[in-house]
């Protein structure tokens, strides 16, 4: 059966509506959301209410966490100080706009959702703030999936959709010196695992301007990245009208690839 | 002269053991650097004398280079050095009594010094940490899955990781590894084969059990405090 995985909606209602429509047109009813319902965009309450209304299973994203717990995201999440300032401003704006009810909804979202062999998280199983980029060290990537006891790990947070297969792995170890055990060698085969990044519905950073998400078939194990057009102008106008930084509108329109990407993607927030 | 590291941990206030190790090291050949990988304090003993000695080494002491360990983290948590968090894990696992004993074992005047300690050192291509690059309480042993060990090495970008948390002594080498990675995104397919260069994780032990590391040959020697005296008595050589 096909299921859809969406992430990083970022309060962009026209993009969310377009993606949900695209999912509906394919007859898919099973949808999982990987969080970041809010942040950057102008319609945080509207997006949360739509997700609640459709009863879409959702994990808590980094923005959802920070809006609730205060701005805990360490500065490493931002590529520059200007970007950080803009991020803080958007955070403040979102916190003020959100209703109490919607804040509570974000506060109570789970860190992860498990369905059979699939684990759904926002950033990584370690943290909502960890970036699993497509070119991350292959062993470290495999460790994230293995440690989470999953076969497929669905994540978002990077805003770049990809499917990564890690296969035919092995590691050999040797005990060189030990207080208690004799010298021994062993070699183990590593299982095949996959990481699927669902990209971003409301704040794409893959180089294009279309909203992205993925469709996963749990029988064939096939994963497809979908791109969906939406009314970008509508969102851009709402951003300007809301008094949010105009660059948020500009980058939606231009699909600026690295707008807010962390400089050191392997960095794990030590909060 | 041979470059050698002495790696100790888990003294938990035991000044006698520390003095015994200092004595050992004076007789150990080579140019020795002494690293204390945390757990200088603990709830069992009054730790003030040891802390005083670490901060103010005697003139003939080898200078100790200290980092904080799990017990230091607990006292810092409990004393409000980590924001609103308290030592809840300790409280739940060992009970209120142990939390109290820990607080009583260390004079408050040492807390600022403890708080000033680093999480770890990176020397050459080696990481020296109490637990691991992931967490001060990360308990790495011979039985930890190699993927996890590799992850901890990768996070620090080092080839060797010296760890103390498990209190065990071991030198585990990751001799080879390979994994095939295929990434599919909107731009197409990218295949890559990744190999592991040789790496190692070394458990340095705790208390009287400590480790000598020969930087030039990458050899470890697991010793017990007082071994130099034993050596004299029994006439056995450690090929140092
Ligand atoms: Zn996001
Ligand atoms: Zn995020």
What would you note in describing this structure?
The complex is a heterodimer of chains A (271) and B (240). With 271 residues, chain A is α/β, with parallel strands linked by helices. Chain A has a single domain (2-163, 193-254), classed as Metallo-dependent phosphatases (Purple Acid Phosphatase, chain A, domain 2), CATH 3.60.21.10. Chain A is built from eight helices and eleven strands. Chain A has helices at 13-25, 44-53, 62-69, 81-97, 100-107, 138-147, 232-242, 246-254, and strands at residues 2-6, 31-33, 57-58, 112-115, 118-121, 152-155, 162-178, 185-190, 193-197, 211-217, 223-228. A six-stranded mixed sheet of chain A has the order 4-5-6-9-7-8, with helices on one face. A five-stranded mixed sheet of chain A has the order 3-2-1-10-11. In chain A, α7 packs antiparallel against α8. With 240 residues, chain B is of the alpha/beta class. Chain B has helices at residues 15-27, 48-55, 70-78, 88-94, 96-105, 111-116, 146-156, 227-234, and strands at residues 3-8, 31-37, 64-67, 120-123, 126-129, 160-163, 169-185, 188-195, 199-204, 209-214, 219-224. Chain B is globular. The chains are: A alpha/beta (271), B alpha/beta (240). Chain A binds chain B through residues 126, 134-135, 137-143, 146-147, 160-181, 185, 188, 190, 206-208, 212, 225, 227, 266, 268, and chain B through 134, 142, 145-148, 150-151, 154-155, 168-187, 190, 192, 194, 196, 200, 205, 209, 219-222. Bound molecules: zinc ion (2 copies). One zinc ion is lined by residues 36, 61-63, 122, 157 of chain A.
Outline type of chain A: globular
* Distance N to C terminus of chain A: 39 Å
Beta-strand content of chain A: 15-25%
The strand order across the widest sheet of chain A is 4-5-6-9-7-8
Q: Describe the largest sheet of chain A.
A: 6 strands, mixed
